[in-house]
Amino acid sequence: MSDSEQAPDSAIYSKDYWDLVFEQLGRRKLFRAGMGVLALLYGLVIFAPFLAGDRPFSFEGVDRAAYGSSLNSLRAVTNGMLKLVSATDDEYLAGLQESGTLGADGVPQTRAGALLLETDAMDLRLDVVAFYLPDTAEAEQAALLAFRNKLSEGKAAFAGGDAPKAAELLGEAKNITRDLRKTLRPLSPAKPELGGVALQSRRTLPLWEALWPREIFFMVLWILLASWPVWNRMLNRVVLGGDREEVRRWRRRKAFGVLGLSVLASLGWYATFGDGDDMYKNAPHKAGLISGAMVALPEGQLLGEGDGVFEPTWPPLTYGLAETHTEEMFRPPTWWWWAEIDEAGKYVRGPKANAEGQGGFKAAVTPVDVRAGEPERNSSMRHIAGVDELGRDFLTRLVWGGRISLTVGILSAILLTVIGVVFGCLAGYFGGRIDVAIMRLIEVLQAIPAFFLILMTMAFIPADVISPIFAIVIVIALIRWTGVARLVRGEFLRLREQEFVIAAQALGFSNRRTIFRHVLPNAMGPVLVSAAFAVAAGILTESAVSFLGFGIRPPEASWGSLVNESKNASNWWIQLFPGALIFITVTCYNLVGDAVRDALDPKMKR
Amino acid sequence: MVPTTLGIALVVFTIFHAAPGDPATVMIGAGTGGQLGQDTDVEGMVEKFRRDHGLDRSLFVQFFDYVGPLNLDRDGIPWFSSPHTERATRQVELSDGTEIDEGKVMAIGHLPKTSDEDAERFDAARVVLSDDEAGEAAWSAAVKALAEGGDEARPALLSGLHLIAESAATRQAGIGRLIGALETNTGAEFSVPKERLEALGDVARIRACFAWYFANGGFRVQNTGADWWGGLFVGDLRREMQSGREVGPELVKRLKVTVPLALSSVLLSYLFALPLGIFSARNHGKRRDGLVTIALFVLFAIPTFWAGLMLILTFGKTGLDLLPVVGLHDKDAADLGYWAYGWDTVLHSILPVLTMTYSSLAYLSRQMRAGMMDTLQQDYIRTARAKGLSETMVIYKHALRNSMIPVLTLLASVLPILIGGSIIIEKVFDVPGMGRYAFDGLLKRDFNIIMATTILVGVMTQVGILLSDITYSIVDPRIRNE
Q: Is B19 on the interface with A (CB under 8 A)?
């Protein structure tokens, strides 16, 4: 309140420790450059689904294949329900025993449970059929509704214990399915003379529905953190009126607010869209559009009538994670001088021009299959970073692999800092035998080169028991915490003699309070610096471990394991790009760490 | 040094056994490359592997056998014998519900109390019994000799049965004689239920003999000729589990490749880092220093494997084709003369050493720069300059020694990093050194190789720490004169 009439961001107000630190950081160009590049990289990998994937943002059209298969399988599912209702409990259990699934996980052990599963399957199919029925087709909709009602009557009867009646009703429902197949038969645009129901084009949001709530968390978090300078300044000026005291008090609220908003956003997403899709499964759109199983029409248009065309909006890199173009195996970046492929599928010039077949796998050469949404065969934008061994676009894999690399870096750094701080606190504050014991442990752990130990531990953890991503984060943290612990211990030994600690103890503060509220905040400076460098070291270690084959295994990729995909030096793009990305990331973290260290050093004011 | 080495061994041992999955299965899977045929008896292979390498013993016994000066090889020492005898028998349920014991057929060594001549005698008798052509007289003499031998003769007979079972060439008469001799010796009768005979044939009879032996106080003594001493403390690094080669000599062979490379890398990095650091400190604040700092900074961030690969791309066949990139010698290097061979080795080592050097170079020169800058701010330097000494004298005669102290102590951390990082470099450049050996051991999950290399690296690290402490005390008179 006292200095509110002064200019809010000038240097006249009294600065506390963090004010000074942030100011020093802000002055350093290299810090801003490093943070900027890092923010960009993190943004690219966090928003990876929007950048690279085979799911369009929105799709308006008809999924004829889904409609057809759903309609045709109605009878089978109804039959399944009928059999369940007609059998007795003993017969059901006997059936389970025969198929060997008695007591197995995920297999319902009661008829009621199995009926629930069948109901879910039925609902799925009925929803698809109802989705594409035209709004104007009232008769057909009524028929579908009648079928649904019959089913619910049957289920109600079964739930009420009247199994014979339920069986009777479901039998009638089964007969209805035959009629449904006739009445709801879709119109085929190729043979309109055969008649049928003209399906109506609907809009779906494949990309949005494929996102996971946790991805939303990180996206919102990134947006808030990246725009921090903007909204922070506005908040300080408008809401807090430039009062420095208020600003300082609000720091914690801002931090929790950012986190809270992200959590809320992800919970809200979960409530709206539910879980996401497995990105390693190809979406049906690209293949469907070519084969005719999916037709893209403007929303509301009926199949076979009207001639509107809908162009789906694809992400910039229109390749799925599991989508292969085997005919383009090990194709260099399409802007490279020998990347051109002629119509037959042969390289026009360069080292592969006279090769027999492609990669020695096939005798014949197949032309390049340009699928929906992809650039032209020889467009330089087609494969900006080349193609890997299975024909997957390399840039897509780089973007998605970056998720794992960057995640491992940050998570392992956080974990090792926490472990190191805890042990360092214990050793430094309590001294005596605890100190000696912890120092012995640190000595033993530091006697083996960290990389060696990490490699060895990763070698003994089988990939199918523990996911390599978790394993490598935990292993790196469990082995590299010793550096941070030593640092914290040193700081504690220094701070323990200070007067404020003696005063705190004289006042009767508990140990925990003294440590966490008084000593630790003062010791955090070097810890932050080492945390920044720990992330860099973590990324380097993970990439080296994955390069040697003991880290991330296929189909997941991290930058290190991507480098390992081809030992052949003529596939230079496989080795160059992932390593370059690692190099850039590590440089930025080193810059940030250096800048933080300089900013925290009281002697190096600028 | 010793407790820490023990600690290292303990850490490796714990990791090896605490990891999920059975070690033997993992090693078999890794060793054969996962190519087990459909009809191979995987469980049998795993069991045999476990017994052969003592993985079925208790963890304490395994650890102390590896470490301790005492050889706890299988059951070498009586008072540490692990309860194999119980585990060596198995209960088999017959069709009528009764159970019989079947013993595991294995090699039985002579008892420790058996003298060498007795052992020879028994073995000879056993050979006679196995021989189809020796004749009745020889056979009955052999039986008598064995009967007189008492319990000392039994191992010989059982070894004979084991050999027959192993060789799968069932010499029926031989089995009959051996079992008869055993019955005479022990006074027991070995009867086998008919259904087991039908199922297994003669092996059932052999198993019954072994079951009796184990149940009646016989313990397995593997007569490997192993003496009392063995294990890490005596320098015995055991054998590789898959190939059977001795780890020790192989390790020495590999070290002869890695250590020269590492030493030359350390030498080179110090050689270039010191002048670079001095240059940086002298030109502190000018653009030259800025450029050097940026260059070193950038170098520091390059991953080792990537640097190696990029160097191969640039200088190898697909690039400029100036330097050889694979291995340490050309294929026909053995034909070259002495000097040409040396030159060939040097050419091959350039890229690996370069890759090893650059990151420690960056680190060391930064440290040198920081140390030198700190020193140059001291008062005595100002005095020296005020005295009119030239800048060169000031730096090289006065400042250098004091600023080198922290850099020399870094020797402790540089050497282990080199050894540890050599795994990557040796894999990328295909150099047959210690790093490559450790990597192959990791691929095969071979416990002995991994243990040996880790302990070696740990020892070298501690030696490095010791060296740097010694150097520290030599160079810094404040400590020396304490």
A: yes
